[in-house]
Write a structure and sequence with these properties.
Number of helices: 24
Number of strands: 2
Radius of gyration: 21 Å
CATH architecture of the largest domain: Alpha Horseshoe
Helix content: over 70%
CATH class of the largest domain: Mainly Alpha
Largest sheet: 2 strands, antiparallel
Low-confidence stretches: 1-31, 424-440
Order of helices and strands: HHHHHHHHHHHHHHHHHHHHHHHEEH
CATH topology of the largest domain: Serine Threonine Protein Phosphatase 5, Tetratricopeptide repeat
Shape: globular
Strand order of the largest sheet: 1-2
Length: 440
């Protein structure tokens, strides 16, 4: 489920709100506040106003930097990579006008690079920001998250350990949740993201998109633990805040797959694809059609994933991980799936990149290499049911029955409601041990 949420699976300080700094206060009990309703024209109006301002004063580094941040807000709203590219171009223009005391443009440039998964390019920029202001906890968090996305978890933890722990924000709790999930503590991970959501709900300035992000991430954590009803409530709350939240629409579609409600899964995924036709979403539509007996429609959407992914890649978008998993899951174009997984490893070495590599190697029949990559995916004890499922299949392929059984047991304990390749986990459980092919 780690998705293009980085993004497109990415963290709030990188994408949502795009503020130069986040409010950080000591946690205290407060009443929740009323938030401004979502205005679908807000960011476009802001961009139009700033474009006019830059036109009137093309030498204004501040206005140009603010325009770059406005493009990032638009990106967070729509998922359209062109907005991130516009942000990068505009931020660089602002920095050409003035480098000193231009933190707005520095931040916008770093965020725009992260949006494109250019983590190594963003890294020196964020490091420079922190060197200029070592006590800035928002920049510390940004840097820690950048290392986290790259898979340099030790460095991320080192930076995190140096923070002022007395200062707590909604975003710092969200990052704490990620760390605890990585280290195999889903319950504490859930508590941390719930605390982040509670803090976000108290912030008057929290945008509808940002608040929806916290609801969606909380829902994702519930979903990853098999608590479907609680996950559904979170996803629905996210949509009340931000009706175009395609991440939460995808979440609702996944829940419907887990419940074997194919028609409802199709409905949610179709609504999501009308906003952002991501590979994950199109795969859900294809799977739902397949279960409803419409093989022609399923075949159409599976082929559409190939077309859209290639088009997106030509424009600089980053769907390699999603598409590699889709191809491996559905036994399609397996050499290409492996190549994409290997390409992803050139960008980052996080546990989900290793998992994708392991799964594509497994499907390519290179089981010993798959086992080696899987050990790196499991190195931190993460209780991710999909990773554990992949691990169980690799061990079964190597005829390590006891190890396959161990991973399968851990998988079902982590999430008994995982949807796997067209069937809920309770069916996949039996077939994992028997070695029979899963239905297509």
């Amino acid at each position: 489920m780690k998705k293009y949420k980085i993004l497109l699976l990415l963290t709030p300080t990188l994408f949502v709100g795009c503020a130069v700094s986040h409010s950080q206060t000591k946690a205290r009990p407060e009443l929740r506040v009323e938030h401004f309703p979502y205005d679908p024209t807000l960011h476009q109006k802001e961009i139009a106003g700033l474009l006019q301002g830059v036109k009137n004063d093309p030498q204004s580094a501040l206005s140009t930097g603010q325009l770059a941040l406005a493009y990032l807000k638009r990106y967070a709203e729509t998922g359209d990579l062109q907005s991130a590219l516009n942000a990068e171009r505009t931020a660089r223009r602002s920095l050409q006008l003035r480098v000193k005391r231009n933190e707005v443009a520095m931040l916008a440039l770093a965020k725009s690079l992260v949006a494109q998964h250019r983590f190594s390019d963003a890294l020196p920029i964020v490091q420079g920001m922190l060197k200029h202001d070592p006590a800035n906890s928002s920049t510390q968090l940004f840097l820690a998250e950048n290392y986290f996305e790259m898979g340099d978890y030790d460095k991320a933890k080192e930076i995190w350990s140096k923070r002022d722990a007395s200062r707590v924000s909604s975003y710092s709790k969200a990052f704490e949740s990620r760390l605890r999930w990585l280290n195999g503590d889903p319950e504490k991970s859930l508590k941390a993201i719930e605390a982040g959501l509670e803090l976000a709900d108290r912030e008057q300035s929290m945008s509808p998109e940002a608040l929806a992000w916290f609801y969606e991430k909380t829902g994702e954590r519930y979903e990853s633990m098999g608590r479907l009803d609680e996950a559904e409530k979170c996803y629905q709350s996210a949509l009340k805040s931000f009706p175009k939240d395609f991440h939460s629409l995808n979440g609702l579609a996944r829940l419907s797959l887990s419940r074997m409600d194919w028609a409802q899964a199709l409905k949610w995924a179709q609504t999501s694809s009308a906003i952002v036709p991501a590979p994950e979403t199109l795969a859900i539509i294809g799977d739902a059609h397949l279960h409803l007996g419409n093989r022609a429609a399923a075949k159409k959407y599976y082929a559409l994933i190939d077309s859209i992914s290639r088009l997106a890649k030509s424009k600089g978008d980053t769907y390699d991980r999603q598409r590699a998993l889709f191809l491996a899951d559905h036994d399609r174009n397996l050499p290409e799936a492996l190549e994409m997984a290997q390409n992803e490893m050139r960008v980052r070495h996080d546990i989900y990149s290793y998992d994708t590599l392991a799964w594509t190697l497994c499907k390519a029949g290179r089981l010993v290499e798959a086992q080696s990559a899987m050990q790196k995916a499991l190195a931190y004890g993460t209780k991710d049911s999909r990773i554990l499922y992949h691990a169980s299949r690799i061990e079964a392929g190597l005829h390590n029955a006891a190890k396959a059984q161990e991973y399968t047991t851990r998988m079902t304990r982590a999430n008994p409601n995982l949807y796997v390749f067209g069937e809920p986990l309770k069916i996949a459980f039996k077939e994992t041990l028997s070695g029979t092919p899963l239905p297509r």
